[in-house]
Design a protein that fits this description.
This protein has about 725 residues and is of the alpha/beta class. It contains 30 helices and 15 strands. Strand 7, helix 18 and strand 8 form a beta-alpha-beta unit. The two termini are about 65 Å apart.
Amino acid sequence: MSERTRALPASYPARIAARLRLAEGHVAATVQLLDEGNTLPFIARYRKERTGGLDEEEIRSIEQWLASLRSLDERRATVLASIGEQGKLTAELEAKLLGVETLTALEDLYQPYRPKRRTRASLARERGLQPLAERILAQRREQALPAEVARAFLKEAVPTVEDALAGARDIVAETISDHAEIRRQTREKALRFATLVVQRVEGSTDEKGLYALYYEFQSRVDLLKPYQLLAIHRGEAQKVLRVSLKILERDWQQPVRSHFSEHPLSPWAEQLRLAAEEGARRLLLPAIERDVRSTLAAQADSHAIQVFAANLRGLLTQPPLAGRVVLGIDPGFRTGCKVVVVDASGKLLESALIYPHPPQKQLREALATLSALVGRHGVTVVSIGNGTASRETEQVVASLIQQLASQGRALHYLMTNEAGASVYSASTLARAELPDLDVSLRGAVSIARRVQDPLAELVKIDPKSIGVGLYQHDVDQKALAAALDDVVESVVNQVGVDVNTASPALLTYVAGIGPKLAASIVAHRESHGLFPTRAALKKVAGLGPKAFEQSAGFLRVRNGDEPLDGTAIHPESYPIARTLLKRAAIAPQTVWAERQEKLDRLRASQPLADLAAELQTGEPTLADIWLQLMRPGRDPREDVPPPILRSDVLSLEDLVAGMRLQGTVRNVVDFGAFVDIGVKQDGLLHRSQMAPGERLKVGEICDVEIVAVDKARGRISLGLPGQG
């Protein structure tokens, strides 16, 4: 490998900084921190001075580009070695290989040297027809006709002149198809001007007409929407749709002729034209079609993954209904409704089965059971799963609320996304948490706990099973899993985790922990009791200095021996925090209002920059410490409006155009957002009803206006008040 290849890694920060428009020094520091084994949340929160305050998304982009560049250079080294072993690595070719900056460009250059299975061109070369192919490529003006020249190449394996010329054309066709610049230019034109043609496969089954829009469909590829591509790909995979790419002749002929032009006075011009047309039809265009479709699929996947990730973040950052005793119901018809009551900590208190719906129709008994559970345990909120029989169960709960209201007792309910509850019910974690509870009732526990702390409960489920995605089963599953794990990790560390109550699933996502250490922490907690301090975590088997450094700031020990352990202040900054508290005359028991007043007074007495210099810390770190001392242990989810609690049921018949309601965003897709407004069917807030650039997120509470109601099809069109 050349010196230039070995020197490439040194240029990573500069190349990444240029692409992302960030300061090279900050990128270099971030790369170094990542290479030292630091986690992304730790770098973003506790190393702001070194990174210049880069946020998580910027650091993640650096991490991804770094991995991409390293992967490119690993592949580059493999390609250089392969061509070198063939004895074909010229100085000019090496310079080109070292200069390309994308994997596609690298593979284009490698194409002529890639070890191939036996092709028509390789067979022709074996038969000695390479010199004849070179005559075609040279396009010399000469007197001898191709047929005359070809006779010199006749042999047993090449019995006729046409066989000789055909073999030579095969070599030329492959040469043209393998040409890196022709591939690049044709691919670029195809990505702009090619047409995707979709037709229904004759005799295919599509009973529900899911792909009816695409039975006869054409679109220029640059105009295709991601959701269209995902639907087409699914229809093709299910053998309902046939897909092809139409590339205009001019879009491949121009690149070919710019590198292999026919000379009008050469007797070989016709042979070159035939070879080019054959090479395009048989080799070049199929390869470009694969490339274009692969690119389109990757773009659609990336978009769908981004939508899923954004929806998941919204779901995980919903505010908890802390301190509530909750009754959870997993609705059902024939098998009944599974009912549980959990206390404010999520501990199961009691369970029951009720059968208010057909075929049993035991409504009176069901209401009596629910009323007794509410009275016995002081339930204030009912969480109803939104699956089968959910709206019928909602009617039952509304009747219960009316009964209790007549007795002066208040109760509210909300509909809860139950996606993944059945997955949790059958999981190893559910068996460990609820070993004596029937699997059918575990889902109800999950539904109840989701309103108490959505984050703590939803991390127990594979993110792909949470149900806020778009074609999530059709996209790149590895990329999807990585993106969703990034979101969960980000939210968990943003919120912080109580180390004395957290499940292994929640601890797994804490920076520096992972599944094995999470299990060790829980085992240590069960064997030795609650952790009195963060420092006590160092006694956990396998939790070394690096893991403690990465995780400590995201773990909370509430009401422990060290008050600072309940904050997001990292233990490495405790001396600074204690100095500030001492200067402000703040004791651990100082109430919030007085604490804020004293800290404000201290800050007014000295500029932050001067104080940071005096305490030998950076301004960003000092500012973060200050915020934590002002509001210790603050949950960032407190800034989000709480979920809507309902006490009565609306039906589709109650809705009229112009009615204004509050709703909860359940899913966000390309064409709008689905909003739960308290009736059986979620309403669609189409993007045309929103202001340009307006974005909603899953879990957001929003005011909506009924635009239209299609009772026959159960469809509700929504708008935003004031946008009409």
